[in-house]
Amino acid sequence: MRPQPDRDPSLRSSPAQWQGRPTALRLALGGHLRRLREASGITREAAGYAIHASSSKISRLELGRVASKERDVAVLLTHYGVTDAEERETLLTLARQANAPGWWREYGDVLPNWFKTYLGLEQAASVIRAYEPQLVPGLLQTEDYARALMLLRHLHVSHGEIERRVALRMARQAFLSQPGAPDLWVALDEAALRRPMGDQKAQRAQLLHLIEMAQRPNITLQIVPFHAGAHAAAGGPFTILRFSEPDLPDIVYLERVTNALYLDKKRDTVDYLAIMDNLCIQAESPIGTLNFLHRTINESCPTPTDPTATVVAALAELHVRPDDRVLIMLPDGPGFAEAFAGAIQQGAVPLPVNPQLPAHDIVAVAAEAGARLVLISADRLAALAYLQAEPPVLIDGQH
C-alpha cells in the first residue's frame, strides 16, 4: 500500500474562506490535488488514466481552469493514497462547492463567455494590479460613468439591456468591500481623467468616487500624469491577477472589444510585472494622486452653482409682486425646480415653458402671458440679447 501523504494544514480554512466564490474553490482544490499527486510520485499521465482523461485535463484541473466531477476527485484521492475520512470529505466538499454557479449567472444574457472566466479569476485573486490608459477601470466606475460607456460601446441594444449591463458592473464591484477582499492597485493614466464620460455632473461624481475609493485600505490608486512622459505600457490596458494559493502562476489579462487573452507563462507575466512596477515609479504617489484628483476637479469640474439664493434675491430686488406672472425658461432639472420655488416664494405665478423655445417665440409667449420677468439659462442669453427682450431677463440669478 502506498504511504499516505501528510495532510495539508490549509484544508481547514479554505471552504469557509472562499464559500460562494467557485473559481477560488477550484483553485484551492486544484492546488491540493496537485500537491497530493506530487507527494505520491504519480505523473499527470497516470492520474489522467485513472479517471479516463488526458494529462492536459489533469493540468487544467490542478490550475483551477475547469470544474471537477466529485466522483473523479474521489477516484484521484484513492489513487493518491488519501484514506483519512475527514480529509477526503473536506476535498469532496470543495469539489461540490466549486461546481456551484457564480453570482454572475443571472446576468448570462449580457455576459460573454470569455468574460465569465475573468470574473471568476478576479474574485479569486488576492491581488489585482491594473493599468488603464483611457478609461476608469470597471471596478472603480460610478453608475453614471458605466452607463455612458455602455451607451458608447453598445449602439444597437435596447435601454433594458444597457441597464442590465450597468447592473452587472455595479454587482461586480461588491466584492471589494467584503471580508477577504483582494488588494486592488491601479495605475491610471491622466488621459482617463481628462476624457469626459457623460456630462460634467457625471464626470465630477466619478472623480469624487475615485478619491473615496483611493482611501480604502485595500485600494491603491496612482495617476500617471502627462508630464511623466512616455512609458512601456503604451500598448494598451492590462490586468495582473495574483492568487494566494501556493504555486499558482500569475495571470495577465488582456481585454479586447470582443474577446480576451490570458497569459500565464512566466516569461510573459514577468515582463508585465516589470512594466507595472516602472509605471508605479513614474506615477504620482497615492497621496500625490489624491491631490492630483482634487486639482483636476477644480480645473475641469467646478462646483455647480446653486441658483436658489440668487434667484430669490434677484426676484426680491426686482420687486416682484404677488400674482406677478414669471416665465420659467430654465432647463428641466435642479435649476428649473429651484427657480420655480423661488418665484413661488415671492408670491409670483410661475409659468413653465419649454427651455428650447426659439428666441423670437420667447418674447411673444412672454407678452401673451403678460409676464413681468423671464427666468432663463445662461446659454440662451446671446439669442435674446439682440432682441432687446422685454420683460427683464434673469440669467441664473444675474439680471
Kindly describe this structure.
The termini are far apart. The chain is of the alpha/beta class and 399 residues long. Helix 8 crosses helix 9 (159-173). Strand 5 and strand 6 form a beta hairpin. Strands 3-2-1-4-5-6 form a six-stranded mixed beta sheet, sandwiched between helices. The chain has a four-stranded parallel beta sheet with strand order 8-7-9-10, covered by helices on one side. It contains 17 helices and ten strands. It is elongated.
Task: Describe the secondary structure blueprint for this structure.
Elements: H1 14-17, H2 22-40, H3 44-50, H4 55-62, H5 70-79, H6 85-98, H7 113-124, E1 127-132, H8 143-153, H9 159-173, E2 183-189, H10 190-194, H11 200-214, E3 219-224, E4 238-242, E5 251-255, E6 260-263, H12 266-282, H13 286-300, H14 307-317, E7 325-329, H15 334-345, E8 349-352, H16 359-369, E9 373-376, H17 381-385, E10 393-395
Parallel strand pairs: 1-2, 2-3, 7-8, 7-9, 9-10
Antiparallel strand pairs: 1-4, 4-5, 5-6
Radius of gyration: 30 Å
- Helical percentage: 40-55%
- Beta-strand percentage range: 5-15%
Instruction: Give the CA-based shape.
Output: elongated
Largest sheet: 6 strands, mixed
Strands side by side in the biggest sheet: 3-2-1-4-5-6
Give the overall average pLDDT: 78
Which series of helices and strands comes N to C?
HHHHHHHEHHEHHEEEEHHHEHEHEHE
Structural class call reads alpha/beta
**Number of E strands:** 10
Amino-to-carboxy terminus distance? 96 Å
Which regions have little confidence, pLDDT < 50, spanning 5+ residues?
Answer: 1-7, 9-20, 381-389, 394-399
Number of helices: 17
